[in-house]
Structure prediction request, 69 residues.
Amino acid sequence: MPEPTVKKLSDKNTKQEMLEAYQALAKQLEAKRQAELNPERKTEEKKAEEALKVAATVAADGIDREIGA
Prediction:
C-alpha cells in the first residue's frame, strides 16, 4: 500500500490552510443563514437595500443641484 503523501508544515502553509478553512466555514454559515430567513425578513432586507440605493441617488442629485445653483 502506498503511503499517503504528507504535506510539509510551515508557518505559511498552516496560515493558508487556516484561512481556507475559515472562508469555507464563513460561506457555509452564510448559506445556512440565507436558507433560514423567512420570506418577511427577505422582503424587509430588499426594501432596505432599495431605500439605500434611492437615498444615495437622491443625495448625489441634490448635491449636484446645490453646486450648480
In short: The chain has a mean pLDDT of 79.
